[in-house]
Amino acid sequence: MRIAIAGISHEALNTSPVPTTLEHFQVWRGRELLQGESLFSPYPAGAAAGAVDGPKYASLADMMNDLGAEPVPILHANGLSPSGTVEQDTYLRLRDEIIDGIQQAGQLDGICLILHGALLVEHIWSGETDLVRSIRAAVGNDLLISARFDLHGNLTEEFANKTDIWTVYRTAPHRDAPQTLERAMTLLAHCIRGGHRPRPVFVRVPMILPGERATTDVDPMKSLLELAVEIGRQPGILTAEILVGFGWADAPYSSSSVVVIAESEPHLPHARRQAKRLAQAMWDQRRNFTFDQEVASSADEAIDLALAASESCVFIADSGDNPTAGTPGDVPHFLSRLIAKSVPDAILAGIPDGEAARACFEAGVGATVSLSLGGKLDTEYGTPLEVTGLVEHLYQPEQAAQEPAIATLKVGGVRVLITDGRTYFSSLNDFREAGVEPLEHGIVVVKLGYLMPELRDAAPREILALTRGYSDLDFTRLPYRYLTRPIFPLDEEFAWSPVITNVAGYGG
Ligand SMILES: [Zn+2]
Question: pTM of whole model > 0.90?
Answer without folding.
Answer: yes
